[in-house]
Amino acid sequence: MTDGVVFDIQRYSVNDGPGIRTTVFLKGCPLRCPWCHSPESQDFKPQIALKRMSCRGTDSCGLCLPVCKADAMRTIPFTKYVEGEPRELRIPDIDTALCTSCFDCAEVCPPGALYVCGEERAPEDVLEEVLRDREYYEKSGGGMTISGGEPLCQPDFCRDLLGLAKGADLTTAVDTSGFVPWAHIEKVLDRTDLFLLDIKSLNPELHLRVVGVPNELILENARKLSQASARIWVRIPIIPQFNDSDDSCIATADFIASLGEAVELVQLLPYHNMGTYKYERIFWRKPIFEAPVPKDERMAEILALFVSRNIPAKIH
Question: What pTM did the predictor assign?
Answer without folding.
Answer: 0.94
